[in-house]
Amino acid sequence: xxxxxxxxxRLWLTTGFRAAPLLSAAGVGVGALAAIQAPxxxxxxxxxxxxxxxxxxxxxxxxxxxSCCVLLVRFMTGLLAAAVQSTAADRVHDFVRADLMxxxxxxxxxxxxxxxxxxxxxxLLQQGSRGLADAVTTLxxxxxxxxxAGAIVILLAGIHPLLMLLPVIGLVRVWTSYTDxxxxxxxFDRVIxxxxxxxxxxxxxxxxxxxxxxxxxxxxxxxxxxxxxxxxRVADGRLAATRKGMYYELAARVVFGSAFLAAIAFVAVGxxxxxxxxxxxxxxVILGSRVDETAGGVAAALRRSGETVGLFNHYSWFRRxxxxxxxxxxxxxxPPARLRHGIELRHVTFGYPNSIGxxxxxxxxxxxxxxxxxxxxxxxxxxxxxxKLLTKLYEPSQGKILLDGEELGAISPALWRLRTSAxxxxxxxxxxxxxxxVGLGDLPRxxxxxxxxxxxxxxxxxxxxxxxxxGMRTQLGTSFIDGTDLSGGQWQRLALARSFMRxxxxxxxxPLLLLLDEPTAALDPDAEHALYEHIAAAARAGRxxxxxxxxxxHRLSMVRMADQIIVLHRGxxxxxxxxxELIAANGRYAELFNLQARAYRQQP
Length: 604
Description:
The protein is of the alpha/beta class. It has three domains: 3-322, ABC transporter transmembrane region fold (Up-down Bundle), CATH 1.20.1560; 340-419 and 511-604, Rossmann fold, CATH 3.40.50; 427-510, no CATH class. It has helices spanning 3-19, 21-35, 37-53, 57-106, 116-127, 129-133, 135-159, 165-206, 208-216, 220-273, 278-328, 383-390, 413-418, 434-439, 449-458, 462-466, 488-500, 525-541, 579-585, 588-602; strands at 342-350, 360-368, 372-376, 398-403, 406-407, 420-423, 513-517, 548-552, 564-569, 572-577. It has a six-stranded mixed sheet with strand order 6-7-8-3-9-10. Strands 2-1-4-5 form a four-stranded antiparallel sheet, covered by helices on one side. The model has no long low-confidence stretch (mean pLDDT 78).
């Protein structure tokens, strides 16, 4: 058995006891008690029949009393098992969801979000989350089925040793059920990519954020067709596996039915010859159906356990990948209290998973402490990739990034990010109160109204909050009945204010790196110009702590204030210098700047 499967089984067997130890132990006990009830009742039936035929009143009364007690215990354990299993499943469900969330959010980088294999595994775990939650219930079923099977084998052996062949033949059905589960889960595994795509398209079709574009371009039917096609592929794959498994199940039932009829004939002959009792025949008839039910129960338990173990294999794989990613990022060094020399990139190359070529190639760059830097270039030039490397969301494929001479890779990602701040083009719209939405930028001071107000002022966003119905206490977002929605530009101003939280009134832990990725993409030109004045002021203020400000913008007229402009082209540095130097060089930057300048002059 492979290591992955063993780790999946181990995780399955332990998860329930980690999530709900007392309930899990109680469930196993109740399952074991329920498992011996049917064999006990069958044994009592044998004694009852023989007692009646042999006129043994004491034995008949005793057997009837046992049957009544078994029925009472079955009724009680049925109620108890339902309550225990349901509660335990809920506990495990909550535990697994929290564990998956914890594992995912603690991964230092974002590579796992952009790998199809990992995305498929995560989607599969999400789709099968109920199967993970039923881990305890499945374990109860397996324990009960095995105990029940063992008791039946003992009773059949008591009639005649040859009858032990019946459970052996019943194992054929167990094997076919296992094969059926393997086929089903294999099919589910193969089509999960189609299911993930269908779910993504469904979210697009239903999302208010895409509603206008979907209707303007009239792509509703196209989306419905693509969704239908992908769901059809999922259904076809699973139906084929179900049909094949059904053939195996049918063949197993025919084989067992024939063997059961032969066993009845064998025992009937024994009763007629006096070698066996009428009670033995009654016991066989009862146990024969129980053998079939038990084989079915064992088969169902194994099928469920097969599906559960399959999910836990993925769960174990994902946990291991997360641990390896987290372990690979373990670093003991702290970032410096302030930058004295700056950041240096030496022969840095980076490529995304499954990409055709590297996004950055042989980047050599030195950024002095306290400098303001602008990254410019066409889409796909590598600007955002460089920012991801600087924030340790990715590690370079080749080369080194040095921070005051020490490798950035040796610095703890969590501690480094405490000394960075950023505003991104694809900013998050956190639907909290306005104060909290901004305060998230510095968690230790999330309720510090003075700091939040200073960050709003630094981002030229105070007017946005002051215009809200309840000011900073206003609930934002359309997810709430009393929530207030904002325009794209207003949301971006709050995102920028969030990035300034660590830069204001924070003398002991000011950020060493401030990243602004298209921070004014949703603003009008007048607001953009005013905001860049604030950004320039923040960059100048950061020089006393050596803070490096990195600005990404497509509007070249707004990057002239930068101490250093870096022009990226196809993942390489095309040129670098100040605005006057690059204009005088009459290279790529000058060409792009003049093109934009002419375009603005030509606007009415």
